[in-house]
TrEMBL record:
One of its GO terms (biological process) is glycogen biosynthetic process. InterPro entries: Glyco_trans_8, GNT1/Glycosyltrans_8, Nucleotide-diphossugar_trans. It comes from Dermatophagoides pteronyssinus (European house dust mite). This is glycogenin glucosyltransferase. The lineage of its organism: Eukaryota, Metazoa, Ecdysozoa, Arthropoda, Chelicerata. Self-glucosylating initiator of glycogen synthesis. It catalyzes the formation of a short alpha (1,4)-glucosyl chain covalently attached via a glucose 1-O-tyrosyl linkage to internal tyrosine residues and these chains act as primers for the elongation reaction catalyzed by glycogen synthase.
């Protein structure tokens, strides 16, 4: 087993599917590092079976919730209360060096060189560059660091209610101590940069190695046409559309066939792949009211009703294979 690993976290089935796409992208760019995923009880048994096809190791951990969820409620992102669970990544002391990556990231060029960096190396956050973004970071597993982080969370909480605030409090000298701990933006490019600073994106975008689908709208909530390889509907700039379509192509090529082969489709209830035999203009895209959207985002599927395995299997058979 490699002494170095890429690590991610899935707290529900949707993020587990995102993690599979991430793992596929890492293998596609040629990494031979160990692929490790932390999961919680909210990931279904059927999806765990699929995860075994993409990750070298799966480890079940307890859910850690934010000590101050009111902050996240004010940000209208209550689902981030579970992100402190990623702190368990420091307990993986069987590895000498790890790179943690959120499940909503996609690798488009090899990034193995990041294992040469030291803890804690990360990209400045686009919203407040004196803080680092915790979607991608290099770290060294340590039981002591894990214990210290848990103690700080219990004692001081997190200034943003999630893992990023806590980690920036703990590694408080990141912005001033050593510039070598600052990673280039190409290792954690958020889609917002494609319109907030378009000239820079046009100049440096070809160098991007990791795309981070930061925010509440994830690729798996978009409707995709597998025939045209285009999103059916999308509000945003062409560059953001391009990257979401890259995610979907990885999903269609590498993840969906495994899910379909194992007859595991219930957890794809919030995803829509159009019939490849129909033109995109004739496709009816998936819609949902606000309450159901929020339920999907928090991993709360109606498995006994509209989102039952039988219903989703029937819908996917009709849309993917053109069955009536």
């Amino acid at each position: 087993m490699s002494s170095e690993a890429f690590v991610t976290l899935a707290t529900n089935d949707n993020y587990a599917i995102g993690a599979m796409v991430l793992a596929s992208s890492l293998r596609k760019v040629g990494t031979q590092k160990h692929l490790f995923i932390l999961i919680t009880d909210n990931v279904s048994d059927k999806i765990r079976e699929v995860l075994n096809k993409f990750f070298d190791t799966i480890q079940l951990v307890n859910l850690l919730k934010s000590p101050d969820p009111k902050i996240l409620e004010a940000l209208k992102r209550p689902e981030l209360s579970v992100t402190l669970t990623k702190l368990y990544c420091w307990k993986l002391t069987q590895f000498t060096k790890c790179i943690f990556m959120d499940a909503d990231t996609l690798v488009v060029q090899n990034i193995d060189e990041l294992f040469e960096r030291q803890e804690l190396s990360a990209v400045p956050d686009i919203g407040w560059p004196d803080c680092f973004n915790s979607g991608v970071f290099v770290y060294q597993p340590s039981e002591q660091t894990f214990n210290n982080l848990i103690e700080m969370a219990a004692r001081d909480g997190s200034f943003d209610g999630g893992d990023q605030g806590l980690l920036n409090q703990y590694f408080s000298d990141w912005s001033t101590k050593d510039i070598d701990h600052h990673l280039s933006f190409i290792y954690n490019m958020t889609l917002a940069s494609t319109y907030s600073y378009l000239p820079a994106f046009k100049r440096f975008g070809k160098n991007v190695k990791v795309i981070h689908f930061l925010g509440s709208l994830k690729p798996w909530y978009c409707s995709y046409n597998a025939s045209t390889k285009k999103l059916n509907t999308f509000i945003g700039n062409d560059h953001a559309r391009e990257f979401i379509e890259k995610w979907w192509q990885m999903m269609v090529d590498n993840v969906h066939p495994v899910i379909e082969q194992l007859n595991i489709v219930g957890s794809m209830s919030s995803m829509a792949i159009s019939n490849p035999n129909q033109p995109s203009s004739s496709i009816t895209t998936t819609t949902a009211d606000d309450d159901r959207y929020q339920a999907w985002q928090q991993g709360q599927m109606d498995y006994l009703g509209a989102d039952s395995y039988d219903n989703i299997q029937k819908r996917l058979d009709q849309s993917i294979h053109g069955q009536q």
